[in-house]
């Protein structure tokens, strides 16, 4: 268990160094799309945030033939509602350029998935074309999270505020009611995953917040489980990324007998 806590702490230390050396890029000209509205208006039983992800610290390399734009287009063809793009280089083999390239080629709203700990990263996210950012409750003090959340709002970015524990959510709700709350079924301290986490935390999610279940979703029965628990959307990465055809993978996940080629 301690090993993963060490990894998380290491990631945050790396982020602090990155922020210290961060040079803001020139803003890219892309059309902003509302991440919140896309999730609120799905055609399916649950909205899908499909994740573009090459690797992770817990799984290593997930997708060998990694072309971010090709994957994003396959997700779009599979009728994902939104995309999540890993921009962390050191631990997830991501890049901020992937997000920009995807935004330039796909019409879906894009969430920047990274460990955001500083105002500069929020500004950077807006400049590279993100429509939304991830703010991790287990990584940020509630008051600091609120400051980043408000800054994001001023820049026209939605925020997916992610928590793993009930305790973290309760602390955040004392200072802020996020429009979108994600429950990460993966414990960031042990990296063990269980979708029962969604059900455990569901009673604490404010009625006005859009409720997203993240991680550990592999098949249709998992979707049914988190929907019954109250989730309105799911964030799915690894189980889609591991397959050869991401468009077909979405159809399979939702039990749609699509013969996508």
Automatic annotation (TrEMBL):
Keyword flag Lyase: yes
EC number: 4.1.1.48
SUPFAM superfamilies documented for this protein: Ribulose-phoshate binding barrel
Molecular function, one GO term: phosphoribosylanthranilate isomerase activity
Family matches, as InterPro entries: Aldolase_TIM (IPR013785), Indole-3-glycerol_P_synth (IPR045186), Indole-3-glycerol_P_synth_dom (IPR013798), Indole-3-GlycerolPSynthase_CS (IPR001468), RibuloseP-bd_barrel (IPR011060)
GO process annotations (BP): L-tryptophan biosynthetic process
Keyword Metal-binding in annotation: no
Pathway noted in the entry: Amino-acid biosynthesis; L-tryptophan biosynthesis; L-tryptophan from chorismate: step 4/5
Domain Indole-3-glycerol phosphate synthase residues, every copy: 9-252
CDD domains with a match to the protein in the record: IGPS
Family named by the database record: Belongs to the TrpC family.
The protein, known as: Indole-3-glycerol phosphate synthase
Organism: Priestia veravalensis
Lineage, top ranks: Bacteria, Bacillati, Bacillota, Bacilli, Bacillales
